[in-house]
Input
Amino acid sequence: MKLVIQRVLKAKVTKKENNNVVGEINKGLFTGNTGQALLILLGIKKGDTKKQVDELVSKLIKLRIMSDQNSKMNLSVIDTKSEVLVVSQFTLYANTKDGNRPSFIEAEEPKKAKVLYEYMITKLKETGLNIQTGSFGDYMEINAVLDGPVTIVLEN
Output
């Protein structure tokens, strides 16, 4: 399982087929927070488990990548009560070792991946944070204003 975590000022996901906004985030509630939120791109590979989701959620919510009053990365998304947007992205498991056209053979099949994606959303919502999502399996357009930029990859 792979998470690409981007600290953003705002982000929005639009479903391409009908141009409907399906998820949108802005800032957290912490007064020292300069309007930071997190955009999470989630890749699920074959064999990933709910235990891995639990571990990544635990790490993600404690990860000290949000700015404090002195613009230092000292706070977690829980500390700042920041908003989080989670988008499933199977292309994180693209393999180009054998040519120029990516193979996605390592990515989990959609039915199984959706179960883990929804499980992650449930676990994140249990934290009390405002959790928004993309539209699983659909072609989407993502607009984001990166902050920092801060981009971190977590994988297990």
